[in-house]
Amino acid sequence: MNRELAIDATGLTKKFGDFAAVSELSLKVPEGQIYGFLGPNGCGKSTAIRILTGLLTPTKGSAKVLGIEVPKQAELLRRQIGYMTQKFSLYEDLSVSENLSFMAQIFNLPRDLARSRITELMDTYRLNELANQLAGTMSGGQKQRLALACACINKPKVLFLDEPTSAVDPQSRRDFWEQLFDLSEQGTSILVTTHYMDEAERCHGLAIMNKGWICADGSPLGLMDKMQANVIEIAGNDLRALKDRLTAFDEVSSAAQLGNRLRVLIDKAQADPIGFLQATLGANEPLQMEQVRPNLEDVFVDCTGKPLPSSPVQEAGK
Ligand SMILES: Nc1ncnc2c1ncn2[C@@H]1O[C@H](COP(=O)(O)OP(=O)(O)OP(=O)(O)O)[C@@H](O)[C@H]1O
Protein backbone atom coordinates (compact mmCIF):
# COMPACT_ATOMS: atom_id res chain seq x y z
CA MET A 1 0.00 0.00 0.00
CA ASN A 2 1.16 3.47 -0.82
CA ARG A 3 1.08 5.21 2.60
CA GLU A 4 0.76 8.55 0.90
CA LEU A 5 -2.74 7.60 -0.14
CA ALA A 6 -5.41 8.17 2.51
CA ILE A 7 -7.96 6.35 0.35
CA ASP A 8 -6.95 3.68 -2.12
CA ALA A 9 -9.89 1.91 -3.73
CA THR A 10 -9.76 -0.41 -6.72
CA GLY A 11 -12.59 -1.94 -8.71
CA LEU A 12 -15.28 -1.44 -6.07
CA THR A 13 -18.69 -2.63 -7.14
CA LYS A 14 -21.91 -2.62 -5.15
CA LYS A 15 -25.04 -4.25 -6.46
CA PHE A 16 -28.50 -4.08 -4.93
CA GLY A 17 -30.17 -7.06 -6.59
CA ASP A 18 -29.39 -6.69 -10.29
CA PHE A 19 -28.82 -2.95 -10.02
CA ALA A 20 -25.20 -1.79 -9.81
CA ALA A 21 -25.19 1.37 -7.68
CA VAL A 22 -21.37 1.52 -7.88
CA SER A 23 -19.40 -0.05 -10.76
CA GLU A 24 -15.65 -0.72 -10.79
CA LEU A 25 -14.92 2.38 -8.75
CA SER A 26 -11.26 3.24 -8.32
CA LEU A 27 -10.34 6.23 -6.23
CA LYS A 28 -6.98 7.45 -4.94
CA VAL A 29 -7.01 10.31 -2.45
CA PRO A 30 -3.58 11.55 -1.35
CA GLU A 31 -3.08 12.24 2.36
CA GLY A 32 -3.99 15.74 3.48
CA GLN A 33 -5.99 16.56 0.36
CA ILE A 34 -9.57 17.70 0.04
CA TYR A 35 -11.13 15.53 -2.64
CA GLY A 36 -14.50 16.43 -4.12
CA PHE A 37 -16.96 13.77 -5.15
CA LEU A 38 -19.49 15.02 -7.72
CA GLY A 39 -22.28 13.45 -9.70
CA PRO A 40 -25.99 13.62 -10.42
CA ASN A 41 -28.53 12.54 -7.79
CA GLY A 42 -28.55 8.78 -7.36
CA CYS A 43 -25.24 8.17 -9.17
CA GLY A 44 -23.75 6.24 -6.23
CA LYS A 45 -21.71 8.75 -4.21
CA SER A 46 -23.26 7.96 -0.82
CA THR A 47 -23.08 4.24 -1.53
CA ALA A 48 -19.36 4.58 -2.32
CA ILE A 49 -18.80 6.54 0.89
CA ARG A 50 -20.67 3.94 2.91
CA ILE A 51 -18.38 1.26 1.48
CA LEU A 52 -15.26 3.31 2.23
CA THR A 53 -16.35 3.93 5.82
CA GLY A 54 -16.89 0.19 6.31
CA LEU A 55 -20.67 0.50 6.73
CA LEU A 56 -21.50 -1.42 3.55
CA THR A 57 -19.85 -4.52 2.11
CA PRO A 58 -18.94 -4.23 -1.57
CA THR A 59 -20.10 -6.95 -3.95
CA LYS A 60 -16.65 -6.90 -5.53
CA GLY A 61 -13.33 -5.08 -5.14
CA SER A 62 -11.33 -3.82 -2.23
CA ALA A 63 -10.32 -0.60 -0.58
CA LYS A 64 -7.76 0.59 1.89
CA VAL A 65 -8.38 3.65 3.99
CA LEU A 66 -5.34 4.76 6.00
CA GLY A 67 -3.84 1.43 5.04
CA ILE A 68 -6.71 -0.40 6.76
CA GLU A 69 -8.67 -2.85 4.67
CA VAL A 70 -12.43 -2.41 4.39
CA PRO A 71 -14.77 -4.07 5.08
CA LYS A 72 -12.45 -6.63 6.76
CA GLN A 73 -11.03 -4.25 9.37
CA ALA A 74 -13.97 -1.86 9.52
CA GLU A 75 -14.07 -1.69 13.32
CA LEU A 76 -10.42 -0.64 13.47
CA LEU A 77 -11.00 1.98 10.79
CA ARG A 78 -14.07 3.51 12.39
CA ARG A 79 -12.02 4.80 15.32
CA GLN A 80 -9.81 6.79 12.95
CA ILE A 81 -12.33 8.40 10.64
CA GLY A 82 -15.12 10.95 10.88
CA TYR A 83 -18.36 10.74 8.90
CA MET A 84 -20.89 13.54 8.50
CA THR A 85 -23.98 12.58 6.53
CA GLN A 86 -26.17 14.83 4.42
CA LYS A 87 -29.03 14.66 6.93
CA PHE A 88 -27.44 16.16 10.03
CA SER A 89 -26.33 13.30 12.18
CA LEU A 90 -27.29 15.01 15.41
CA TYR A 91 -29.57 14.09 18.30
CA GLU A 92 -32.18 16.83 18.11
CA ASP A 93 -33.37 16.36 21.70
CA LEU A 94 -29.87 16.76 23.13
CA SER A 95 -28.13 20.08 23.66
CA VAL A 96 -24.94 21.07 21.86
CA SER A 97 -22.69 19.99 24.72
CA GLU A 98 -24.70 16.78 25.24
CA ASN A 99 -24.30 15.86 21.55
CA LEU A 100 -20.55 16.33 21.84
CA SER A 101 -20.37 14.38 25.13
CA PHE A 102 -22.37 11.56 23.58
CA MET A 103 -19.97 11.36 20.63
CA ALA A 104 -17.03 11.34 23.07
CA GLN A 105 -18.64 8.38 24.86
CA ILE A 106 -19.16 6.50 21.59
CA PHE A 107 -15.43 6.84 20.95
CA ASN A 108 -14.64 5.89 24.57
CA LEU A 109 -12.62 9.03 25.19
CA PRO A 110 -11.40 9.16 28.80
CA ARG A 111 -13.36 11.78 30.76
CA ASP A 112 -10.55 14.38 31.04
CA LEU A 113 -9.62 14.06 27.41
CA ALA A 114 -13.29 14.32 26.41
CA ARG A 115 -13.71 17.50 28.42
CA SER A 116 -10.69 19.24 26.89
CA ARG A 117 -11.58 18.05 23.38
CA ILE A 118 -15.15 19.35 23.73
CA THR A 119 -13.87 22.73 24.99
CA GLU A 120 -11.49 22.92 22.04
CA LEU A 121 -14.22 22.02 19.51
CA MET A 122 -16.73 24.47 21.02
CA ASP A 123 -14.12 27.23 20.55
CA THR A 124 -13.11 26.20 17.03
CA TYR A 125 -16.68 25.88 15.77
CA ARG A 126 -18.11 28.87 17.68
CA LEU A 127 -20.53 26.84 19.75
CA ASN A 128 -19.88 28.29 23.22
CA GLU A 129 -22.92 30.53 23.30
CA LEU A 130 -25.10 27.66 22.12
CA ALA A 131 -23.80 25.07 24.61
CA ASN A 132 -27.18 24.47 26.28
CA GLN A 133 -29.40 24.88 23.22
CA LEU A 134 -31.18 21.80 21.90
CA ALA A 135 -29.76 20.75 18.53
CA GLY A 136 -33.28 20.56 17.09
CA THR A 137 -33.80 24.29 17.64
CA MET A 138 -30.58 25.44 15.94
CA SER A 139 -30.33 27.09 12.50
CA GLY A 140 -28.98 25.12 9.51
CA GLY A 141 -25.56 26.78 9.73
CA GLN A 142 -25.32 26.17 13.50
CA LYS A 143 -26.31 22.52 13.09
CA GLN A 144 -23.66 22.15 10.42
CA ARG A 145 -20.95 23.53 12.75
CA LEU A 146 -22.05 21.15 15.48
CA ALA A 147 -22.17 18.19 13.07
CA LEU A 148 -18.61 18.94 11.93
CA ALA A 149 -17.48 19.27 15.55
CA CYS A 150 -19.08 15.90 16.35
CA ALA A 151 -17.44 14.28 13.31
CA CYS A 152 -14.07 15.60 14.55
CA ILE A 153 -14.38 14.46 18.19
CA ASN A 154 -11.83 11.66 17.66
CA LYS A 155 -9.39 13.85 15.66
CA PRO A 156 -10.04 11.76 12.53
CA LYS A 157 -7.29 11.30 9.98
CA VAL A 158 -9.87 10.99 7.22
CA LEU A 159 -13.17 12.86 7.14
CA PHE A 160 -16.06 11.74 4.94
CA LEU A 161 -18.56 14.53 4.38
CA ASP A 162 -21.73 13.68 2.46
CA GLU A 163 -23.33 16.89 1.15
CA PRO A 164 -22.39 18.82 4.27
CA THR A 165 -23.47 22.21 2.95
CA SER A 166 -26.86 21.41 1.43
CA ALA A 167 -28.86 23.46 3.95
CA VAL A 168 -26.70 26.50 4.60
CA ASP A 169 -26.27 30.03 3.25
CA PRO A 170 -23.29 31.19 1.13
CA GLN A 171 -21.44 32.85 4.04
CA SER A 172 -21.78 29.73 6.20
CA ARG A 173 -20.59 27.58 3.29
CA ARG A 174 -17.58 29.84 2.92
CA ASP A 175 -16.77 29.63 6.63
CA PHE A 176 -17.24 25.86 6.51
CA TRP A 177 -14.71 25.54 3.66
CA GLU A 178 -12.22 27.67 5.57
CA GLN A 179 -12.56 25.17 8.42
CA LEU A 180 -12.00 22.28 6.02
CA PHE A 181 -8.77 23.90 4.83
CA ASP A 182 -7.66 24.33 8.45
CA LEU A 183 -8.25 20.59 8.95
CA SER A 184 -6.46 19.77 5.70
CA GLU A 185 -3.46 21.84 6.78
CA GLN A 186 -3.35 19.83 10.01
CA GLY A 187 -3.07 16.67 7.88
CA THR A 188 -6.69 15.51 7.71
CA SER A 189 -7.70 14.00 4.37
CA ILE A 190 -11.24 14.84 3.30
CA LEU A 191 -13.64 13.24 0.82
CA VAL A 192 -16.61 15.55 0.34
CA THR A 193 -19.66 15.20 -1.89
CA THR A 194 -21.21 18.35 -3.25
CA HIS A 195 -23.55 19.60 -5.94
CA TYR A 196 -22.04 23.11 -5.81
CA MET A 197 -19.50 23.88 -8.52
CA ASP A 198 -17.92 26.72 -6.52
CA GLU A 199 -17.14 24.16 -3.81
CA ALA A 200 -15.81 21.68 -6.36
CA GLU A 201 -13.39 24.35 -7.59
CA ARG A 202 -11.91 24.67 -4.12
CA CYS A 203 -10.92 20.99 -3.97
CA HIS A 204 -7.37 19.74 -4.58
CA GLY A 205 -8.80 16.89 -6.64
CA LEU A 206 -12.17 15.78 -7.98
CA ALA A 207 -13.88 12.61 -9.06
CA ILE A 208 -17.09 12.87 -11.07
CA MET A 209 -19.48 9.90 -11.01
CA ASN A 210 -22.25 9.02 -13.43
CA LYS A 211 -24.63 6.08 -12.92
CA GLY A 212 -22.19 4.25 -10.69
CA TRP A 213 -19.08 4.89 -12.81
CA ILE A 214 -16.26 7.38 -12.33
CA CYS A 215 -16.23 9.40 -15.55
CA ALA A 216 -13.54 11.97 -14.71
CA ASP A 217 -10.85 12.27 -12.08
CA GLY A 218 -8.16 14.91 -11.59
CA SER A 219 -7.50 18.46 -10.43
CA PRO A 220 -10.18 21.07 -11.25
CA LEU A 221 -7.83 22.84 -13.68
CA GLY A 222 -6.68 19.57 -15.23
CA LEU A 223 -10.28 18.48 -15.81
CA MET A 224 -11.13 21.78 -17.46
CA ASP A 225 -8.08 21.50 -19.72
CA LYS A 226 -8.84 17.91 -20.69
CA MET A 227 -12.52 18.45 -21.40
CA GLN A 228 -13.60 16.84 -24.65
CA ALA A 229 -15.70 19.81 -25.78
CA ASN A 230 -15.14 23.45 -26.73
CA VAL A 231 -17.38 26.08 -25.21
CA ILE A 232 -18.95 28.76 -27.37
CA GLU A 233 -21.16 31.54 -26.08
CA ILE A 234 -23.72 32.93 -28.51
CA ALA A 235 -25.46 36.28 -27.96
CA GLY A 236 -28.59 37.03 -29.92
CA ASN A 237 -32.37 36.91 -30.02
CA ASP A 238 -34.75 34.02 -29.78
CA LEU A 239 -32.26 31.85 -27.89
CA ARG A 240 -34.87 29.23 -26.88
CA ALA A 241 -35.52 28.33 -30.54
CA LEU A 242 -31.79 28.45 -31.28
CA LYS A 243 -31.14 26.03 -28.44
CA ASP A 244 -33.68 23.56 -29.85
CA ARG A 245 -32.08 23.75 -33.28
CA LEU A 246 -28.55 23.26 -31.96
CA THR A 247 -29.22 20.36 -29.61
CA ALA A 248 -30.53 18.33 -32.57
CA PHE A 249 -26.91 18.02 -33.80
CA ASP A 250 -24.75 15.16 -32.51
CA GLU A 251 -21.75 17.51 -32.28
CA VAL A 252 -23.59 19.66 -29.71
CA SER A 253 -23.56 17.92 -26.34
CA SER A 254 -25.32 20.68 -24.44
CA ALA A 255 -26.79 24.18 -24.81
CA ALA A 256 -27.93 26.19 -21.80
CA GLN A 257 -29.11 29.79 -21.56
CA LEU A 258 -27.36 32.27 -19.26
CA GLY A 259 -29.19 35.61 -19.40
CA ASN A 260 -29.00 36.77 -23.01
CA ARG A 261 -26.33 34.24 -24.00
CA LEU A 262 -26.46 30.59 -24.98
CA ARG A 263 -23.57 28.48 -23.70
CA VAL A 264 -22.96 25.66 -26.16
CA LEU A 265 -20.67 22.63 -25.77
CA ILE A 266 -19.32 21.32 -29.06
CA ASP A 267 -17.36 18.10 -29.46
CA LYS A 268 -13.60 18.75 -29.75
CA ALA A 269 -13.58 16.61 -32.90
CA GLN A 270 -14.91 19.77 -34.57
CA ALA A 271 -11.64 21.65 -35.03
CA ASP A 272 -13.36 24.97 -35.86
CA PRO A 273 -16.40 25.17 -33.55
CA ILE A 274 -17.40 28.72 -34.52
CA GLY A 275 -17.09 27.84 -38.23
CA PHE A 276 -19.22 24.76 -37.55
CA LEU A 277 -21.91 26.86 -35.85
CA GLN A 278 -21.92 29.49 -38.61
CA ALA A 279 -22.26 26.79 -41.26
CA THR A 280 -24.96 25.03 -39.27
CA LEU A 281 -27.03 28.13 -38.57
CA GLY A 282 -26.62 29.85 -41.95
CA ALA A 283 -24.84 33.12 -42.73
CA ASN A 284 -27.87 35.42 -42.40
CA GLU A 285 -28.31 35.05 -38.63
CA PRO A 286 -26.96 38.14 -36.76
CA LEU A 287 -25.31 36.27 -33.90
CA GLN A 288 -22.21 37.09 -31.90
CA MET A 289 -20.11 34.05 -31.05
CA GLU A 290 -17.12 33.76 -28.78
CA GLN A 291 -15.06 30.79 -27.64
CA VAL A 292 -14.72 30.91 -23.84
CA ARG A 293 -12.81 28.96 -21.17
CA PRO A 294 -14.62 25.88 -19.88
CA ASN A 295 -15.72 25.91 -16.25
CA LEU A 296 -16.39 22.97 -13.96
CA GLU A 297 -20.10 22.98 -14.72
CA ASP A 298 -19.19 22.42 -18.39
CA VAL A 299 -16.93 19.54 -17.38
CA PHE A 300 -19.72 18.07 -15.24
CA VAL A 301 -22.35 18.37 -18.01
CA ASP A 302 -19.99 17.06 -20.69
CA CYS A 303 -18.91 14.08 -18.61
CA THR A 304 -22.30 13.07 -17.17
CA GLY A 305 -23.98 13.39 -20.58
CA LYS A 306 -21.68 10.81 -22.19
CA PRO A 307 -22.54 7.13 -22.76
CA LEU A 308 -21.40 4.77 -20.02
CA PRO A 309 -18.57 2.28 -20.48
CA SER A 310 -19.78 -1.25 -21.07
CA SER A 311 -19.87 -2.96 -17.73
CA PRO A 312 -18.66 -6.52 -17.32
CA VAL A 313 -20.49 -6.59 -13.98
CA GLN A 314 -23.81 -5.46 -15.43
CA GLU A 315 -23.40 -7.81 -18.36
CA ALA A 316 -22.62 -10.69 -16.02
CA GLY A 317 -25.78 -9.89 -14.06
CA LYS A 318 -28.05 -10.08 -17.11
N1 LIG B 1 -29.95 -0.11 0.28
C1 LIG B 1 -30.30 0.09 -0.99
N2 LIG B 1 -31.10 -0.76 -1.64
C2 LIG B 1 -31.43 -0.58 -2.94
N3 LIG B 1 -30.99 0.47 -3.69
C3 LIG B 1 -30.20 1.36 -3.08
C4 LIG B 1 -29.80 1.22 -1.71
N4 LIG B 1 -28.99 2.27 -1.40
C5 LIG B 1 -28.87 3.02 -2.52
N5 LIG B 1 -29.60 2.48 -3.53
C6 LIG B 1 -29.72 2.99 -4.90
O1 LIG B 1 -28.41 3.19 -5.40
C7 LIG B 1 -28.36 4.35 -6.21
C8 LIG B 1 -27.28 5.27 -5.72
O2 LIG B 1 -27.72 5.87 -4.50
P1 LIG B 1 -26.77 6.88 -3.69
O3 LIG B 1 -27.52 7.29 -2.46
O4 LIG B 1 -25.45 6.25 -3.51
O5 LIG B 1 -26.65 8.10 -4.71
P2 LIG B 1 -26.00 9.56 -4.51
O6 LIG B 1 -25.08 9.76 -5.65
O7 LIG B 1 -25.44 9.68 -3.13
O8 LIG B 1 -27.28 10.50 -4.67
P3 LIG B 1 -27.59 11.99 -4.08
O9 LIG B 1 -26.70 12.96 -4.78
O10 LIG B 1 -29.03 12.19 -4.45
O11 LIG B 1 -27.38 11.92 -2.60
C9 LIG B 1 -29.77 4.96 -6.19
O12 LIG B 1 -30.45 4.53 -7.36
C10 LIG B 1 -30.39 4.36 -4.95
O13 LIG B 1 -31.79 4.25 -5.08
UniProtKB/TrEMBL annotation:
Top-rank lineage group of the source organism: Bacteria
Domain named ABC transporter: residues: 7-236
Gene Ontology molecular function, alphabetical: ATP binding
Tagged with keyword Cytoplasm: no
Keywords, in A-Z order: ATP-binding, Nucleotide-binding
The keyword Cytoplasm is annotated on this UniProt entry: no
Residues passing through the membrane, by range: none
Full protein name: ABC transporter ATP-binding protein
UniProt organism field: Shewanella corallii
